[in-house]
Design a protein that fits this description.
The protein is of the alpha/beta class. It is built from six helices and nine strands. It is about 30% helix and about 30% strand.
Length: about 190
């Protein structure tokens, strides 16, 4: 899948929304990507994850990991395509961690997958977990990079779709200044 095809898939499924949104990062934005509008279709999830897996097929990945919630689906499908285990991280007492008996073997080559990246904070937390458990991060696979190229993880990363979207600090948001109502979406409470 090329970037044009990925974007069209997100548009066709209603996954790209316009308005005034409070992002998980705490920033405000005129655009929101509701990934579950596309991920609700197993055939689309399979196609997107196959495309992600192909980008890391030569990296000798031994384990795929992603943060809960979207990362569960992505890790599973990418892992299936790469022939590896697939696990996920969760927050416990506000800290990203492994639970449910999941392990990372020392030196295990790990691919991190994420659905949407704005600041890269969640990916960095997963990278920290991988390193704390002795894993070797080999890359980061992303469905949508909306960081405008600002996210840097210190390992190779590939995104299927790149969006450059303005984000604003809450106290300096022109959408707030215009009185536009804000919509809070996402899975993490701030």
């Amino acid at each position: 899948m090329n970037e044009t095809q990925v974007r069209q898939l997100f548009v066709d499924t209603g996954a790209i929304l316009e308005g005034h949104f409070l992002l998980t990062s705490g920033l405000h934005s005129p655009l929101y990507v509701e990934k579950f509008q596309v991920l609700q279709y197993p055939e689309h999830t399979a196609s997107l994850c196959k495309a992600l897996a192909e980008r890391f097929a030569q990296d000798q990945v031994e384990l795929v990991i992603g943060p809960v919630t979207g990362g569960i689906l992505l890790a599973h499908e990418v892992g299936k395509n790469l022939g590896t285990r697939a696990i996920f991280t969760e927050r416990e007492n506000g800290k990203m961690t492994l639970r449910r008996g999941f392990t990372i073997k020392p030196g295990e080559r790990v691919l991190i997958v994420e659905d949407i990246v704005t600041t890269g904070g969640s990916v960095q937390e997963v990278l920290d977990v991988v390193r704390e458990h002795g894993g070797t991060p080999v890359g980061v696979g992303i469905l949508v990079d909306r960081s405008g190229g600002k996210a840097d993880f210190g390992v190779p990363h590939q995104a299927l779709l790149h969006l450059t979207v303005e984000t604003y600090q809450p106290d300096n948001c022109p959408l707030c200044a215009q009185g536009n109502p804000i919509t809070k979406r996402g899975s993490r409470k701030l």
